[in-house]
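Lecture 7, part B: from sequences to assemblies.

Below are the input chains for today's worked example.
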Amino acid sequence: MMEHHFKCTNCSRIFAAGTTEREHIYICPDCGESIKNSPLKGVLTVEYDYEKLKKTYTKDKFLHLTAGQIWTYPDLWPMEFSKIDKYDLEKLALPPNQILKYKIDGRELYLQDETRNPTYSYKDRASILVALKAKELGINEIAAASTGNAGSSLAGICARLGITSHIFVPKNIPEAKRIQIQSYGGNIYLVDGDYDQAFDLCLEISKKNNWYNRNTAYNPLTIEGKKSAAFDIYINTKGEIPDYIFVPVGDGVIISGLYKGFLELKKLQIIEKLPRLIAVQAGGSSAVVDYLSTGIFEYKPPNTIADSISAGAPRNLYMAAKAVKESKGYEVKATDDEILSAQKELAHKTGLLVEPSCASTFAAYKKEKSKFEGNKKIMLLLTGSGLKDFASLKQWNYKPKIKSDIEWINILIKEN
Amino acid sequence: MMEHHFKCTNCSRIFAAGTTEREHIYICPDCGESIKNSPLKGVLTVEYDYEKLKKTYTKDKFLHLTAGQIWTYPDLWPMEFSKIDKYDLEKLALPPNQILKYKIDGRELYLQDETRNPTYSYKDRASILVALKAKELGINEIAAASTGNAGSSLAGICARLGITSHIFVPKNIPEAKRIQIQSYGGNIYLVDGDYDQAFDLCLEISKKNNWYNRNTAYNPLTIEGKKSAAFDIYINTKGEIPDYIFVPVGDGVIISGLYKGFLELKKLQIIEKLPRLIAVQAGGSSAVVDYLSTGIFEYKPPNTIADSISAGAPRNLYMAAKAVKESKGYEVKATDDEILSAQKELAHKTGLLVEPSCASTFAAYKKEKSKFEGNKKIMLLLTGSGLKDFASLKQWNYKPKIKSDIEWINILIKEN
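Predicted structure of the full complex, as structure tokens:
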């Protein structure tokens, strides 16, 4: 394990790492606390000795890695992978071939397909690192608050490793998401409140029971785990990374992790320029977009069909906003109607069935595409499978009329 | 393209291949016809010049292939891959890392994970070959009859390639399966009848409209496409193939294709011994198992929760039975209760959420496991994702009680 430390993104205080006890640090004790309907302040980030790392982590080394297997380049993670059983690691490999290239309406698009991860979503990248850290620490129970995908991801990854998971969800969780969590054997706790209340209760009970906690952004490894997509994109594009990446944004952890990954590649002098990250949110849940436009955070109860990016108080708002600004990206909103129509068009034109959350990236791209020069490489980040949210598919697939044998034979079929 | 021909599995008549017109051959005109509630006779199989092939297709060559990409060893397919756009091929790659190794109840099990294929099922292996053949032939419309997965697979693969798909389904198709087909943009036709009637109507209308037809077993490439799993298993186990493979059986096409793949490896002198294929069926849909036990086929309306292996008249019964016998395998039935309980146990212990159809293999394994010597390598073929059949997951995941804040704080959590 390479030397590393944790740093508060608010006050810049440094926390040493490397001992079991200290690894339990979640959030800066000076700045961070969980406040109802508020983003978290004092989220920690992991820092490494990049000057030292860049001697061994060269362009050439990176180009020869296999995507989807973070343990093959262990020094870029705050982990002691050597303590983990080889077969446990193999159970967590992502498909290495994740980028699909499609020509849509005359323009090439790169699609980063996270829908075939172990539990069919991007959240697995965070769950994998967190679960392996628990294994390394010898902790066999992990808890998380979730509105859906993070919970089923943690439950599924824990099942692969024989770890017990405890998932705290708001009582109005969509049925499909609840059942996915339970199917993987996660212990589920239906909280009589919203995500905020589930979040706080999960922290309290985790402490009481000495469970390792995976609350999004609260545990810095959730952000750290999500940086792996940047490395995978570098490997899979053979270093020809996109100019622009459309990223669906809810709590702001994916875009923060992705940005950190690219920033590390830059610090290692493997890439020269960062891709510009375009934050996409649903019109009914646009706290990050609004903060970027106005500089003000204001809590509004979220209201969107895209439940995986529905967040009134994005826990990782400040890092997400920074990722957009520092990568010279910008922000876009899409309405629920635009999202559903993009979900349909994407499935029909590419055979990729995605959740509304990330169909938003295609909706946003369609609005913006006239702005891009023809030679720019554009990627959409497709973060979750459409099968995870069956209710949204039902909205645009009506049952056709049943016809009798004779009716069929007597008509030409082309009408459908 | 290597020289090859088609051979009738009933009368052994040979049909030359290689011209566009002849590629349209589906079934032996002497033996084959579609008879209601009956298996197909006269299914064709593809034969190659193995003596010639074995000079270049050596053990060493095979061990260095990438799994999931059939076009990287083109001579074992009745296809002219060079006529297909490279980017179209890349869109069809399966994840190369499909085998997971788990220790369950003290014994190692190999799980072949087909749940992360492009449309989340094994059927993609057939659809890929059929769709590429259509491309090669310059046909842009493909039709198939389906009770679910074959249809959504064809629709999804066609969407990737810009081909129009026409799917004929019985009117009682599960809603989830119907919506998957439609989501990928497949034109769907709800037939006022059962699978048999959809099958016949699909053939008739395909002929009328000059569509390429993917009806299971009727088009020999559906069986041929499914042999690729044998090659992938060889590649992924580095030649150390399993001694036994539990295979879920409905129409009998998967087990026939798998057997053919291993037989070809044997003909090429790459393996010495075939894995023994254990045919698993649901108690309420056991025509192949019963035929193996009694030598008699009798149509019974199928009745099982495992809709992907529900088939009263397995189209490919005779080849399936031959695959079991010639590989020295045998047959096992599992009840719906055993299947659901296996689905649950597998998800909890491995994090793999699979359909009831293939959870049947775990149910069967649990019944049989005392029979196997400890040093035997056992594999389960997991053919479809559990997210494809949400209704089955609902059967064993009840909604827990919602507790208030105060109730939570006052109890210790370990009760769940």
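Note for the exam: The longest helix of chain B spans residues 195-209. Keep this in mind when comparing with the next example.
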